[in-house]
Amino acid sequence: MAIPTLQGIQTALSGLLAQQEAMDTVSNNIANVNTQGYSRETAVLEPTPSLQIANLSQLTGEGAWLGTGVTVQTISRVRNVYLDSQYRTQNSALSAASTAAEELEQTQSAFNEPSSASIASELSTFWTSWSELANDPTSEASRESVVAAGDQLTQTLNQVARQLQTIAGQAELQVSVQTGPNGEVQSYAKQIAQLNGQIKLAEEAGQKPNEMLDRRDMLLDKLSSLANVTVTQEADGTDTVAFGNAEKPLVEGTTVNWPQEITEAAGGELGTLIGLTGPTGALTSYKESLDNIAATLNESVNALHGEPPFFSGTTAATIKVALKPSEVKASGTKAQGGNEVALAISELRGGAADEAYAALVEQVGSNLQVAKNEQANLKTGVAAIENQRQSVSGVSLDEEMTSLISFQRGYEASARTLTALDTMLETLIEHTGQVGL
Amino acid sequence: MSNRITPEMIQSATLSSIDQSLEAVQRSSEELSSGKKILQASDNPVGTSNIINLDYEIEGLSSYANGIGNGLGWLQTATGAMGNIGEILQRVRELLVEGSNGTTSEENLRSFGVEVTHLTEAVKQDANTQYGGQYLFAGTATSTKPYNPGLEDEYQGNEEQVLRAIGPGSTVNVAMNLSGVLGSGPGAADGKLLDVLRTIAGDLTEATPEARKRLGGVDLKNLETNIEGLDNLQAAAGAATDQLKTAEARIEAVQATLTQALSNVQDANIAEVSIAYSSEQAAYSAALRVGATIIQESLLNFLQ
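Predict the joint structure of the above. Result:
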């Protein structure tokens, strides 16, 4: 049994084609070196089935297996699913901590402590103005400065209360926009469902839809910063996505289940925002504390001042000075020069309102400090996992250049083999049977 | 885990270390430019609440110090006015002693009488002394003249105390009850200073031997009783002044301690931060330089 004459040419051709395809893969990797979410691809080369040549050996009559070349079995996407799920878990936690830090940072700057322009300093000025009035109870100027200091204090309280209100309002708005129709959640979910469908079709047709898989993974990464995400890979290539603590999966095959109810336990940005503005959330508790301080001020000063009341309004947003300078009383019943009321009010310095305020500032500060520390820790964690993901899936130019050279050389060598075979055949066709010519 | 290193990894690592170095540099520069180590509550929540409480206390102490300063000024002025009255009374006493012996002519006695009437007016004027627009000797009726000029001697004020806070919950009365010495004149017939002075003036003008006898006897005795009353009041003013000064010294000492405590919590250690700042800057430059060098290089630079 002889070897087919043109088999070598076929083999060389398969080499040319395979090396070319591998070079195309390298080229695609290099082109996508800076593409976010891109996983590097490798051409998996595989020898083609050997050709059996029977009775090759005249001595033993044994046959042999002749290699017939190479083919690209598949272009595989280098990706570690376990790292993806770790990344998403950590990313949700980081996003939750970052959102908390961001919101609390805004809150802290509303309080603007420690500084000389804050509720604490306005409280001090207010008590001092009463001391001054006690020293000079008949002075019109002292009365005016009591009212001015009171106005300043209540306006600062009103303003901080408004800022807290705005921060909470924006957080609620953000949640309703993101979870609302055509919000980020729905839009990511729709895209994932669509990709699920396309990937399923492609895999049924035996294709490797790498770029769709990359896109779906990137969408899942983005979704994980909104709330906790759990991804289950189905046999048909689709991903089932559980989102936060929603009852039904957000994406199931090509179906999107949204809107659904989620709570603080959803994690991620949305969970944090829902938690902060919820009935036990930090923003709510700050508002309550500030309202208590306003109510304490109102109650304690009015009780000592008697009629007409000095303050009106018992919440931080509504408290204001309710009287004219001429109605400010330094003394209850005694003559103009009496000062027992002013003295008693000035003794409120360092009292319940002041103490509650200092405690509130400490609370705000320590909540933010905790969130920031958590954020810093998780940032390191996410960076480490991202690093590992990059180590697996990222494109290394050094590596690609090396592959490029080796495939190029492979291509050149296959071409050289073809030339050699051609020369061999030329000898056979052109020069055989012309002996003596 | 595989040890592949990709440009993306180097880039993000470099970027994150540049970020970290820059953040440290920024933090130190903020501390240096503000001189404070606690810039926001979250830097040190407990420290911030300490700062707020210390500020409350220091501000409270300075308002006590203001009250004490005001009280001291008030007492000093009152002591001055009472001193004037004391001098006037010495003059009246001299006139009495001179008038009571038989050698002074009736005419002189009458002129002494006129002088005592003038001196009585001067006493009332001193009793109307003001401090910062407030009458010192009218109790809490500080806008009311205690005594009207002229022959009407009735006291217009009240006997209430005028209090100055010297510390949490503790006050000092700075209103000296001068009306207790001066009384309300002959109308009240209370035997107090104004009543006595009017009687003396009357006796001098009368200039009879009986009147001369009264001058050296009951009038002189009554006058001396009232001089004693005034001295007691001066002593009370002195005691109140001492009390205020003691409180002032105590407040100054506490203020110094609290200010030191505040500075310990709040102020940056400039030497320490400066050194940290320069080493952080060095780290930042190094991170930049390394980043710039590493990222430029790849196998591409060496392939022909």
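Chain B touches chain A through 63 residues (CB under 8 Å).
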